[in-house]
Amino acid sequence: MRRRFLSFLLVTVIAASLLATTCSRPSARPNVLLVTIDTLRADHCSAYGYPIATTPVLAALASAGTRFSTAYAVSATTAPSHASLMTGSAFRTSGVLKNGLPLPQEEVTVAEVMAASGYATAAFVSSFPLRSRFGFAQGFESFDDEFSIPESSEGRRSAPVAHDRMAGATFDKFKAWLDKRRDTRPLFLWVHFVDPHFPYRAPEKFQARWPADVDINVRHYDAEVHYADKQLGRVVEAFDQHAGAGGALVIVTSDHGEGLGDHGWMSHGINLYEEAVRVPLVVRWSGRVAGGEVITAPVSLIDVAPTILDAARVQQVPPSFEGRSLLGTLDPDRTIFMQRRSYSGKEVEDTAVTGEMTALVRSGAKYIFAPEENRREFYQLPSDPHEAHNLLAQAAAGQDAALGEAPAAGQPPVEKASADGGQSPLAAEAKRHDEELAAWRRSHPEPQTAGAPVDKEDVKALRSLGYVD
Ligand SMILES: [Zn+2]
């Protein structure tokens, strides 16, 4: 089962040896820190223009580095999204279609490649779906996923078993590991915080006085974001003390956003609207990455792994990595693909869920397609950033009005099949997008065999965390 990785590893080791003997560039490679802040939607970060100072640390990192203003998660669910992040590819090919399905051992992860190329690797995660039992420890020599009730999120301390950990406690583990370190190899470290995730219960002193007219759930969510940002500052400060001649590369992002009611959905997972998939992405590498720069070209979490390998001067990028290094030239008209996690049930939070949902974004146009739900949505994000006006629904409504069948007020923005018989430029464009998404699915086949069945105890744990099957 390990053949795919082992054969790649052999090539990598040979390439690394050649690099060491023939390369005239300075030998020092950067220490690399990857931070994922779970459930952090970009537009609630002050670093991304949110009017309340939720993320001053991230803003400072962006000032010293580069901020990607149009970064997308591949999914709106923790495990699939992190699977794409770690493998640089669409999660559907690995079979991590939802939380609880393991990342197969034969997948090549960025941590495995970094370890093979001479990096010391360690990870510190904060929630159940990312525990080592689900395959996320691949390539990490040290993987800290031990949780305890006293360290659990404030909203989970009455649970019989600990399934998560507050960012402050995760920082403590990270700092203790760094302080004990005697290794001289360069570092690749991954820190994951869960705090903005529901339940929104930040420590009391972070319950800042947000404007009274802001929804209470949003205020509590923002307080959690603010708390996580504070802990991010502590992690980066500790990490920076270990910057060597190669410098300290810090990459901060999130696995997905949060609904917060924008499209009638509070949480995440079921849809692919901007609030669910648009995430912050900041890269700081002083002296190597421009400070204060904002990149508007669309990028994806699948680009993070190739970026890390590029910075570490790993010459042999695994062929399974589909992303592009963020340190190179980026295409402003690139197509970004994403997919909803799979659901076994038919209804989630009073919302019908059937079959697959995929989406693409290109040049500001966004297309969402759920064929089994007879659902097509098409938005022009520059003029409609909150996806309030489904152009296909409007076309259908216009056609119905012309026929004297105007839709009822408040009708959801769901296109009736072939709004205008497939004749208009809009319908033709939608059809092209259908075909593009179908081609993407075909070129990224799901594994023949489904992931290993989820253990009964795992199902209980996932349900206790609010994850539906
Ligand atoms: Zn998540």
Mind sketching the topology for me?
Elements: H1 3-22, E1 31-37, H2 56-64, E2 66-68, E3 71-72, H3 78-87, H4 91-94, H5 110-116, E4 120-124, E5 142-144, H6 167-180, E6 187-193, H7 216-240, E7 248-253, H8 274-277, E8 278-279, E9 281-284, E10 293-295, E11 299-300, H9 304-311, E12 336-339, E13 347-348, E14 351-352, E15 358-362, E16 365-370, E17 375-380, H10 391-402, H11 425-443, H12 456-464
Parallel strand pairs: 1-6, 1-7, 2-10, 3-11, 4-5, 4-6
Antiparallel strand pairs: 2-9, 3-8, 7-9, 12-15, 13-14, 15-16, 16-17
The structure holds zinc ion.
Zinc ion is lined by residues 38-39, 78, 255-256.
CATH class of the largest domain: Alpha Beta
Average pLDDT reading: 87
The helix fraction, in percent, is: 25-40%
Q: Describe the biggest sheet?
A: 8 strands, mixed
H-E order: HEHEEHHHEEHEHEHEEEEHEEEEEEHHH
Beta-strand residue percentage? 5-15%
Count of distinct structural domains: 2
Runs in which pLDDT lies below 50 for 5 or more consecutive residues are 13-25, 406-420
**Shape estimate:** globular
End-to-end span in angstroms?
28 Å
Task: Give the ligands present.
Answer: zinc ion
